[in-house]
Each structure stands twice: as C-alpha cells, then as structure tokens.
Amino acid sequence: MVEVGVLGSRQSGLLMIRHMVVFRFKAGTGAATQDLILQELQRFPSRFPAMKRFGLGTNLSKRDQRFSHVMTVEFENRAELEAYLDSDEHEHFVATLFRPNVEERAIASYEADT
Fold it and tell me: Which of 3, 57, 59, 62 is the most buried (most CB within 10 A)?
C-alpha cells in the first residue's frame, strides 16, 4: 500500500512518473481501425525505450464505463515523459490515428513512489 503524503514528498525515496490515458472510440470506428490503433499503442515501448511498465487493456470497471480502454506507462522522470509527448512520432500518431477516431479521452500524469 502506498503511503499518501504531501504532493512531491518522498515517502520511500525514489519517485517516478506514472502516465495514464483512458479513452473510448467514436461510434462507427470500425474494428480494423480500433485494432490498428491498439496495435500501434502496443508498439510504443519498442519505439520509446524510456517507457517502463507499459500496460494497455479494456476497462473492466463496473462503476464507470465511460471509457473503454486504458493505457498506463511509467517514466523515470518528467523529462523522459515530455520527450515522449513532444516526439514527432507521438504527435503524428495522435494527429492521424488517435484523435480522428477517439470520442473522449482523459490523460493524467503524477509522481509516484517506486
């Protein structure tokens, strides 16, 4: 169990950055396009070596089904996260595949103990 403290304080020593994206596809987005997007997301760790503990899956929550999928990834520091977010490859994926086919998304990043 993670001990909750003041934001930015170190409870166990080392901090890392956890980045999360939850999303749902637009109605009418075909299965082939959805599969392509999910496959591209699965390839991200091989393209961005700074990514650690990558996860991608279907939302299993019975309490909130607003989003159908969730992606989580960890970075050693904020600079690695920003380098990934600002990369041409990430920007191209978001502009050409993700945004045109995703109805709604939420993104959060936070410092967490390792």
Answer: 59
Fold of 15-113: Alpha-Beta Plaits (3.30.70)
pTM: 0.83
In the chain, domain spans? 15-113
Inter-residue contact 34 to 100 (CB < 8 Å): no
Q: Is the dihedral of CA 100, 101, 104, 108 positive or negative?
A: negative
The per-residue pLDDT for range 90-102, each reduced to its tens digit, is 999 999 999 999 9
Element (H, E) at 38: helix 31-47
Note whether 40 and 47 are within 8 A (CB).
no
pLDDT-above-70 percentage for the chain: 89
Distance CA 27, CA 101 (A): 9
Please write the tens of the pLDDT for every residue from 59-82.
Answer: 999 999 999 999 999 999 999 999
CA 81 → CA 29, 37, 95, 108, distances in Å?
29, 20, 18, 12
